């Protein structure tokens, strides 16, 4: 039943091939991991290939396959969970415990129907892939034992896909690749690393080829030559086959071989006989199924088979011929229908089915009668149980059916046909034939089918122009009845000898044993033999009778009812013949020569017969025994009868014993056979168990591979770890759950002086340099109890070294607490540094605090200003972190530009900042802040660091100083002016130089004294009137000054000069003429404050003698007094008493003081 | 020809008297001396001086308001200043004369003569 649909394949695809996804199924078992890895390492993610990995896996073991593969390929690797749409560039891995199938490019998980050990997930997947993807499916079979994948491969190939197997020499287990290769359908045999390249090459060829049909044209041109090459080598002529089929198949080979043209292929096939074989097989690829077109078969059963069985006589033989039987499904289908029909009609009919094909390899499959489980579904349910036997994932056609069929190599067009055929079923073979071949085949069918017999064709086949010879019985089911015309032996076969085949092919036909006699048809011969010829026996070397002719009653004695005894000539030979018979059979079987035994006589119940016994070995190993009569038969009288009995009684008893022995032997043999049967069935059980074990073994080997990969990784990780342990300077200890040492680094020696033998010892037993080791042990226990990390600071006994100890819980992969890890980090230096830093910090803090220095830090990149607390308070800033703009807001507007300028200069050129600026605020007294800063170049960025401090007081002091200086200058200048004025004025009134000098000198002295007064006065304390008076009177102290008293009256500095001069004039006058000089008396100076703020100062000279009033107001002295009074904004009056000369100064003190 | 009138402002009376006598000796008529700006201002409302000899700081402050007023009136100004280099005066009153304290007789005379033509001519 060949599949005609294959012809349409090239026209089916509508999608552009170039972008078409090609799915590569990868089947692997034991040893597969390594092969898959090697194969996929070469795969590129940008190609249009997707990979589905079907690996035999232990259903109870989580698969690491995806994880392990992902590390070796650029593709995405994922384990299938069902429902995935297959996309290019991905690798899909079968999950454990499930099968996979694909429909419309989507993966589905399937439950296994068979028990473990009988599952064939690779076959299942390949079959579904082939149906779903057609010629865009590729299958790869890698290392593994068993034969899973071989059947699936066939499906792939039948649907036009690509088949590749791993080179068995490179496979760890070559069972699967070898089995796959054995199908003869494999396109490439490659090392795993070259497989992807082969797939890509094949498909890239496919794309180019479909785009332009030029290759097809060249193939057509060379077809004739290619066919003749194949004919010469294989002995089959394909030139009569349909061209389109031939072209497509040849083209496929060219693709596989990666050749450029048909010409190259022609050269290749000429030089390589093996290619002929491959092409031959390729040309015969076929799809056949049980009960294909079941409706047609139902019609056949009803219209043909059922009547055939019903009408057959007991002795009749029904002959059926199935040419082009391929792997036998069609023949078995017909056989099953006949058997089933016979069963229903309760008939026992002799049925002979001849199934023929030119492909011996296919016939071998057919003879084997074993088919994949998937095919079972095609057989109608009622027949399944009766005619098939399940067998490790496959099923076998039962022996009853199998025995009905003879398979043989036979070419319809070349070999002589079978004859006298009742039913000829030839489905989907003629479609492959060209018209000429069809024209040859149909007459042969006509000859073979007996008149009234039936021809059964495929659904798209017809009898064409031979409709006169075949009348349609059921046109739609393609059932035709042969007419009754005389058969004509096809002329082209006559006289044609068997072709001598060029290759090793040799037709090995099953013998067709004939059930008829060899003697011919005529009754004469038979009659001659039975009546006139000497009695003859044909026996085996054991004496078993095969054939008899003539009258043997005189020589043999049939025992009634015992067929076993009757089978052996020696057992039933009559006395006298028996001994000779045994001897001669023995001799002839030994020396294979014609032998005669003369002068014998056989004794029967009735008489004596003399004879010679001739034995002749025949070619087939049997022996022909001829009894030649020498004399007439002598009848017995009674006496002789008796004698005979007596004479032979001993032999007779021996014979009897022998017979009994034989019977016993036979029983024993039967028993043995039964035992043997039992053994056989046990053996079968063992076999299936073995299968199971084998698949378990494969799964285990896969697990083993995976584990090996894991172990490799682990040992790498372990090596990394031990290197880490050896190289790190970090003291580290790992303890287990019992606080025993599990591992440690060498650096731990300074804390725990471990020796190699300490591994496994409890940590508590090891001496430690730590001061508080107990605390450490307790903390470890706590960590192991609650699983929280703990930090500890520990130091050695001498307290010279300090470590920071981190104790972390040690968890196993599943998160169970299983100990703790102790990591020590030495802090000694850090602590020392920290200490030093702290002290340094304290010193600096003190300095800053004492000087009220605020610290600031400016980051030029972010323009952020950071202030410390003092600076914050000093500036009145609200936050310690400010932007430069916010910082500027702390200052008066006129200061801001300065700050910005100096900051910019500082940042850019590194010139240190030093600016004084005024703080913003409502207070009248503006605070001045000095900002000092320097650029600090850090590793990454420069920052600006500085201090700021309040300089308000300094600023004010400076201003005061300047003011004072101005004032002093002013005053000095004034003094000079006054002196120079006085000199000029004095010169106008004084005649003698002496007087002038004297007058001026005393006045200058007075001025100097008053100046001294301002200098000697304690700071910030205003001068009083009393002090001024006392200073003026100082040159005359102790003489006549009786009283100086009055309230405290402050003196302003601008009043001082005038007051001093006035008092000086009065005093000099008194010294010259009054109580301070020549006159007796005393002086009283008193003053009082009047209402309205006026000061009344009274200078009273009290004379002992009477005083004469004098005007005394003339002269320079009085001018000075007058001027001074005016200067003081006051006036002077003089009064005289009898003994008094009283001068009064009334003035309003300067309110500015 | 009537004597040119010279307004004298000086708060130190000894100096004022000295200056008054000197200026009178030079042949001018002295208005004042005034110790305060306010008094001098009151006076010039009534009498227009031809020239003025002004101390910079007077009792009630600096003399500049008065000097401004006098300059507007076209009065020749002679400042009697204690400062050696008084920029402020030079810039505010470019045509004014300056005599440094203590005053030198001939210098004062020259200054007054320098200032006088402004009023006379």
From TrEMBL, chain A:
Every CheR-type methyltransferase domain range: 223-483
Composition skew (Basic and acidic residues), residue ranges: 505-517
SMART domains found in the cross-reference section: HWE_HK, MeTrc, PAS
Keywords: ATP-binding, Chemotaxis, Coiled coil, Hydrolase, Kinase, Methyltransferase, Nucleotide-binding, Phosphoprotein, S-adenosyl-L-methionine, Transferase
Coiled-coil regions listed in the entry: 644-717
GO molecular function, one term: protein-glutamate methylesterase activity
Source organism, top-level taxon: Bacteria
Region listing for Disordered, in residue ranges: 490-517
GO terms under biological process: chemotaxis; methylation
InterPro entries per record: Bact_Chemotaxis_MeTrfase, CheB_C, CheR_C, CheR_MeTrfase, CheR_N, CheR_N_sf, HATPase_C_sf, PAS
Pfam families in the cross-refs: CheB_methylest (PF01339), CheR (PF01739), CheR_N (PF03705), HWE_HK (PF07536), PAS_10 (PF13596)
Active site: 29, 56, 148
Catalysis performed (reactions): L-glutamyl-[protein] + S-adenosyl-L-methionine = [protein]-L-glutamate 5-O-methyl ester + S-adenosyl-L-homocysteine; ATP + protein L-histidine = ADP + protein N-phospho-L-histidine
GO cellular component, one term: cytoplasm
Residue span(s) of domain CheB-type methylesterase: 23-206
PANTHER family xrefs: CHEMOTAXIS PROTEIN METHYLTRANSFERASE, PROTEIN-GLUTAMATE O-METHYLTRANSFERASE
The protein's name: Two-component system, chemotaxis family, CheB/CheR fusion protein
Organism, scientific name: Salipiger thiooxidans
Automatic annotation (TrEMBL), chain B:
SMART domains: REC
Domain spans labelled Response regulatory: 5-116
An example Gene Ontology biological process: phosphorelay signal transduction system
Residues the record lists as 4-aspartylphosphate modifications: 55
Superkingdom per UniProt: Bacteria
Coiled coil: none
Keyword annotations: Phosphoprotein
Record protein name field: Response regulator receiver domain-containing protein
Species in which this protein is naturally found: Salipiger thiooxidans
